[in-house]
From TrEMBL:
InterPro entries: Ribosomal_uL22, Ribosomal_uL22_bac/org-type, Ribosomal_uL22_sf. The keyword 4Fe-4S does not apply. It comes from Mycetomoellerius zeteki. This is Large ribosomal subunit protein uL22m. Keywords: Mitochondrion, Ribonucleoprotein, Ribosomal protein, Transit peptide.
Length: 222
């Protein structure tokens, strides 16, 4: 296939007859319409994510069958696991949002995520609301507000490599990263301190500091 520059050179060298000009211009038009290189097309546009396996083992926790509880035993709270795979978002950015809502009630998590102007916040809010709906419809949770975020984390998904054009015919690699977001809602009120050990009070911190000062020793002394 001739390039446009070659067609222009041939047009200048040929005679000024209408037949030659028409044939050469038609070949140049066909070249412009027919793409000879798809280097500008991103690899992410030509990739079908359905060919990749998604982590579905986390949803198997919803199928767990527990034995009947004994009389007087503490009631086992209901829970629901939900996930969203292949999110076009960086897992490092999603990690902060996943840890932010961990340990909150569902209403508080949805309220906080509504004021975060991040793409991952909108995705996490959507997944939490879907999990809340599944808890009421499929897992016999009586009150949808009586839920809290027991687990919230993300994992790394597929990474698609694309080509980025640079000057002087050089090439660069661009990575299109995906992530998977997982959430588990549990029935009941959230714990007072989600992370153990719980944060110490000011008096406890002062006592620990004074104890460390009293236990100091001078090296190479009697």
């Amino acid at each position: 296939m001739q390039s446009i520059r070659q067609c222009v050179k041939q047009l200048a060298s040929y005679s000024k007859s209408a037949i030659n000009r028409t044939s050469i211009l038609s070949s140049a038009t066909n070249f412009a319409r027919t793409p000879t290189c798809n280097i500008h097309i991103s690899a992410i546009c030509r990739t079908d994510l359905r060919n990749y396996k998604t982590p579905n083992r986390f949803l198997n926790y919803n199928k767990t069958i527990f034995p009947p509880q004994k009389p007087g035993e503490e009631r086992r709270p209901a829970y629901v696991c939900h996930m969203k795979p292949n999110i076009k978002y960086s897992p490092k950015k999603m990690w902060y949002i996943a840890g932010f809502v961990r340990g909150m009630t569902v209403d508080e998590a949805v309220k906080q995520l509504s004021f975060m102007y991040r793409k991952g916040a909108a995705i996490a809010k959507e997944v939490i609301l879907e999990a809340q709906r599944l808890a009421v419809e499929e897992h016999n949770v009586e009150f949808k507000s009586n839920l809290w975020v027991a687990e919230s984390f993300c994992t790394k998904g597929i990474v698609i490599k694309g080509l980025r054009r640079h000057a002087r015919a050089r090439r660069g690699v661009v990575h299109y990263r995906y992530c998977h977001y997982f959430v588990r809602l549990e029935e009941g009120p959230p714990p007072k301190h989600y992370y153990l050990p719980h944060p110490k009070t000011g008096e406890e911190l002062l006592n620990n500091w004074m104890e460390q000062l009293h236990m100091r020793k001078i090296p190479n002394s009697l």
